[in-house]
Every structure is written in structure tokens, then in C-alpha cells.
Specification:
The complex is a heterodimer of chains A (115) and B (117). Chain A has 115 residues and is mainly beta. Chain A contains no helices and 12 strands. Helices cover 0% and strands 59% of the residues of chain A. Chain B is mainly beta. In chain B, strand 5 and strand 6 form a beta hairpin. Classes of the chains: A mainly beta (115), B mainly beta (117). Chains A and B meet through strand 4, strand 5, strand 9, strand 10 and strand 11 of A and strand 5, strand 9 and strand 10 of B.
Chain lengths: 115, 117
């Protein structure tokens, strides 16, 4: 079963608006990561937030993590047409304080930013 | 570094043929992952290796699929015989476990688009 579940499945906005995507997961984690995939390309890492962190920023990206609710959100501010892509959350499950070494990816959110 | 390298980028073959996909991970990375992506099933982890040793192959769909990692700089994913339902994009990714034993980011290759007719 999928560890990460993104919401919404698809999001369509206008350039300049903010985009918010959510991710829920089921088990205890070491960290949660967000990836971006442009059409026909491999996934690219955007940002990593550790289980003891609540918020993290990187440029126009803001990620929050609520371990009590087992959820995370990715906010892209002042979106651009070039942000059009699929966005995936991925969790590194806690294996007794370390990692299993693998990530579990969600189904992704398709973001379309209209110019 | 050139990143994760995959070959071929596109493969079109006929049902029943053997297909071999190749991957060169980033130098120094100790984990290598093979994924399959389709519209219907999304991104699926097929198998992953740590220091060239397969750790978990529970995602490999059938015995027709096999993967090897003979050394730290090369891995193959083989499908024999191939079937139309194997058509998908296959990604290879690599990563380096952090000092605290916690997972770091994965670096993905460009993928191999496989079409089985």
C-alpha cells in the first residue's frame, strides 16, 4: 500500500497564485521529501524535512510537517508557468532509528500553472 | 558528475523478446533503485540494492523480471520474455545513506521508455 497519499490529484491555477499540495502517510518516518517530475523526465529532489522539523523553506517553496497528524504540505508561492509538473511526496520510514534505505512515493499531484 | 545514466532511452520490442535496461549510478552512492512508472499504477519500486546486494525485490512483478548489480557502477534490469503489459517508463535512481543512517535524496536517471508490441 502507498505510504504517501497526495491531495489533490490535480491542481490548476493562474500564474502568480500560490499552490498548495498535501501529503498524508501512515507510519513513523525519519524524513519526508518532495520531488518534482516534468513530463517525460526523471524525478528531481526539491526539499527534505526531518521528523523533528516543523517547517522548512527553500526559495519559493515552503514545506510543513505535522508528525502527530502524519501529514505534510508543500506550498509554492508566486507560481510560474514553468512550475507546471507533477509533485510527489516520499517518506523514509523509521526502522528503529535508522532507515530501510528506500523511499515510498505517493501517487503525485499534477500541477498546471496557466500563464 | 554526469548524474545517473540509463540506456537505452527508448526501446521498442516485440512480445516475447528479451529486454535489458542498463544503469550507471552516481559514483560513491551505496544504494541503487529500479522503478517502473505507468499512468495506471504510478511509480512502483521494483528492487533495490545496497552495496551491490539486493535488499528487497518484493516489487518485481514476476519471474520474467530479474536485476543484477555486478559492481558498484553498473546494474541491469532484464525482462525475459517481454509482454505488452511491461510497457512503461523504467527509472533507475541512486542515493547515499547519511552519517546518521538516515535516507538522503535520491537522484533519478532520465528513464527508459519501453514499448512492447
Amino acid at each position: 500500500s502507498q505510504q504517501g497519499e497526495e491531495d489533490p490529484q490535480a491542481l490548476s491555477i493562474q500564474e502568480g497564485e500560490n499552490a498548495t499540495m498535501n501529503c498524508s502517510y501512515k507510519t513513523s518516518i525519519n524524513n519526508l521529501q518532495w520531488y518534482r517530475q516534468n513530463s517525460g523526465r526523471g524525478l528531481v529532489h526539491l526539499i527534505l524535512i526531518r521528523s523533528n522539523e516543523r517547517e522548512k523553506h527553500s526559495g519559493r517553496l515552503r514545506v510543513t510537517l505535522d508528525t502527530s497528524k502524519k501529514s505534510s504540505s508543500l506550498l509554492i508561492t508566486a507560481s510560474r508557468a514553468a512550475d507546471t509538473a507533477s509533485y510527489f511526496c516520499a517518506t523514509d520510514a523509521n526502522a528503529g532509528g535508522t532507515s530501510y534505505g528506500k523511499l515510498t512515493f505517493g501517487q503525485g499531484t499534477i500541477l498546471t500553472v496557466h500563464p | 558528475d554526469a548524474g545517473v545514466i540509463q540506456s537505452p532511452r527508448h526501446e521498442v520490442t516485440e512480445m516475447g523478446q528479451e529486454v535489458t535496461l542498463r544503469c550507471k549510478p552516481i559514483s560513491g552512492h551505496d544504494y541503487l533503485f529500479w522503478y517502473r512508472q505507468t499512468m495506471m499504477r504510478g511509480l512502483e519500486l521494483l528492487i533495490y540494492f545496497n552495496n551491490n546486494v539486493p535488499i528487497d525485490d518484493s516489487g518485481m512483478p514476476e519471474d520474467r523480471f530479474s536485476a543484477k548489480m555486478p559492481n558498484a557502477s553498473f546494474s541491469t534490469l532484464k525482462i525475459q520474455p517481454s509482454e505488452p503489459r511491461d510497457s512503461a517508463v523504467y527509472f533507475c535512481a541512486s542515493s547515499l545513506l547519511g552519517v546518521l543512517g538516515l535516507n538522503n535524496e535520491q537522484f533519478f536517471g532520465p528513464g527508459t521508455r519501453l514499448t512492447v508490441l
